Amino acid sequence: MQGRFNQWASYTTDEANGQQFYHDLFYRFFFVHEMGHWMEEVVLKQRKDGQTKAADDNSDHNRGELELDANRISVAWWRERDPMFIVRLVGDLRIIQGKLPSPVPAGADIKDFFARNYMKLTEDPNAYGWYQLQMIIVAYDGRPTMSFYQATSSH
Questions:
Q1: At what angle do helices 2-11 and 83-99 cross, to 10 degrees?
Q2: Tell me: the pLDDT tens digits for 90-117?
C-alpha cells in the first residue's frame, strides 16, 4: 500500500510523498467520511416504523449512495472548516483518478456495478480507489452545494 500511495502522490504536483497524501486522505477526509457512515447507521438503527426492515435490507443494494452520502458529509465539513484543503485534495483526486483505469464495464450502470461487485472491488486497491475517488469528486461537484448541517440532516 505504501508503494501505491507513493505512486498516486507522484501524479500530483503538491503532495511530497505517499505518506502525506495518505494522511490527507485518511486522517483528514476519510475520518469525517467514516463519521458520516456512523451517523447513517445510527439513524437506521433508531428507525422504528413499518419501513425499518426494508430500509435495512436496501442498505446493501445502495452501497454507492451510502458512500456518496458519507463523502457529501466530509466535503461539506471541509468546505466549512478548511476550504483550501478540500479544493487542493479534490484537485489531486481528479488527477489521480484520471490515471487509474475505470473498473466499470462499458454500458454498465456505475452504482449498480458497485453494489453487485463491492467485495471483489475491495480486493483491488486501484478499482476500489477509482470508485472512492469518483464518489468524492461527484460529492464535491454536486449542486446545490450543501452545508455540513444540510448534509447531515438530509437523512
A1: 100
A2: 999 999 999 999 999 999 998 889 989 9
